[in-house]
Design brief:
The protein is mainly alpha-helical and about 425 residues long. The chain is built from 17 helices and no strands. It is globular, with a radius of gyration of 21 Å.
């Protein structure tokens, strides 16, 4: 996700990868739009855990969960580096432009988080993006090495969670267990297992109510979502942004690699990642999606394989992007307007699901949610290219760019 750059400065492969990412991230986000939050990690929490609903969960977990978000982070790092390089080439202050962009992105993110949708990632990208600036001069080898170190640390952080959940579950099951231990065990179950009916009912009531009810529900946790994201996935996000910068410098995201190299990394990533994720999915189903199995499988065990899968996805998309056609042109246009398409998806989906709109929140099964996904994909592909044929930027790209530069930017071609 980035500000749009003038057409002559575009990197076609980067736009196609970004287009796939902004469309693909909805595959997972749709669950958060249409169901109580625990359903995102655990199908037993809500929305169906058998038949077509279970199949959809498993396919998404094996192929998409975390991969599209990671791909987005790759692209954010690469696009940030491009903006910095172009600022330096023009003689402008790269630091001023970068931090103005991040400050306004944080504002967009906070408004998005509390007014539109709790799953916002913009504020998180803005905060991590402020750190990325200090790595811009590193060579690809150093960027990759730093990223690997960060990912290793992230794996240790995530591994601690199932250890705590398992210990708490055992202690709470003992006769005479302390009240605070029992409460902590119940909180873990509400977050990662099958939540109490009253917790599900409270979320259904809030998001089936009016706009004020939804805003109050989103605001109830204060700044915890912002701080929590930085603590839980901050290292991983920074690592992926650094890898994106490295892949841009190495030519991978510019489409400059030989086809054989893209195929090799695609086969390595998918060849290792898909069997690993399939095995974890089998474990989750066999374990009955308990809170412990979800924290162990979905969060901890999957983390080491995610980077390989992200590189595989990027390689596959870059390879396909070489054969330009009408569909790829439309996907690239959706990628050029990724910021607008991301926000418009949130606005339209929240209106469709929440009570102040059409009120479908909690009424669709997991498999049924993908009818909405297909409709949103169609909208992105239909409107992005005609808009860019007439205008230089998407609406929100133009607003972000203008605010960051304190000057209205030229909009019409």
């Amino acid at each position: 996700m980035t500000e749009a750059t003038p057409p002559g400065d575009r990197i076609a492969t980067l736009d196609v990868v970004r287009g796939v990412a902004v469309m693909g991230i909805l595959v997972m986000n749709i669950v958060s739009f249409g169901m109580p939050e625990a359903a995102y990690l655990n199908p037993r929490a809500y929305g169906g855990d058998s038949g077509a609903d279970l199949i959809v969960y498993v396919v998404n977990f094996v192929l998409f969960d975390g991969r599209m978000r990671g791909l987005f982070s790759f692209l954010f790092g690469a696009s940030t580096l491009l903006v910095i390089e172009r600022a330096e080439a023009s003689g402008a202050s790269a630091a001023r432009i970068h931090y103005a962009r991040m400050a306004w992105l944080f504002v967009f993110g906070v408004l998005h988080l509390y007014l539109i949708w709790t799953g916002d990632i913009l504020n998180h990208y803005a905060l991590i993006g402020m750190i990325v600036f200090f790595f811009k001069e590193l060579r690809p080898r150093a960027l990759i090495g730093t990223a690997i170190g960060l990912l290793a640390a992230q794996c240790l952080v995530l591994a601690a969670l199932p250890a705590v959940v398992g210990y708490t579950d055992r202690e709470a099951a003992k006769p005479g267990a302390k009240a605070e231990v029992v409460k902590q065990d119940r909180d873990f179950e509400n977050a990662f297992g099958k939540p109490e009916p009253k917790k599900i009912a409270a979320q259904l009531k809030a998001y089936r109510g009016d706009f004020g009810d939804a805003v109050r529900e989103r605001s109830a946790s204060g700044i915890a979502p912002i701080v929590g994201a930085a603590i839980i996935v901050g290292l991983e996000t920074l690592a992926y942004m650094l890898l994106g910068m490295a892949m841009l410098k190495l030519g991978m995201l510019r489409g400059e690699w030989p086809a054989a190299r893209y195929r090799r990394w695609m086969l390595i990533g998918f060849g290792i990642g898909i069997p690993a994720y399939a095995a974890i999915a089998w474990y989750l189903v066999d374990a009955g999606f308990t809170a412990f199995s979800v924290t162990l499988g979905v969060l901890a065990l999957s983390a080491p394989f995610r980077p390989l899968m992200i590189v595989a996805w990027a390689s596959l998309i870059a390879l396909v992007a070489r054969s330009r056609n009408a569909l790829l042109d439309r996907i690239a246009a959706a990628g050029r307007m990724a910021f607008t398409n991301y926000l418009m998806t949130s606005i339209l989906c929240s209106t469709f699901f929440n009570g102040y709109g059409l009120g479908y929140y909690g009424h669709l099964g997991r498999a049924q949610l993908y009818l909405v996904v297909f409709a949103m994909w169609a909208l992105m592909l239909v409107w992005s290219k005609p808009w860019l044929d007439r205008y230089r930027y998407g609406p929100f790209e133009w607003l972000w760019r203008s605010l960051a530069r304190w000057s209205p930017q030229p909009m019409r071609r």
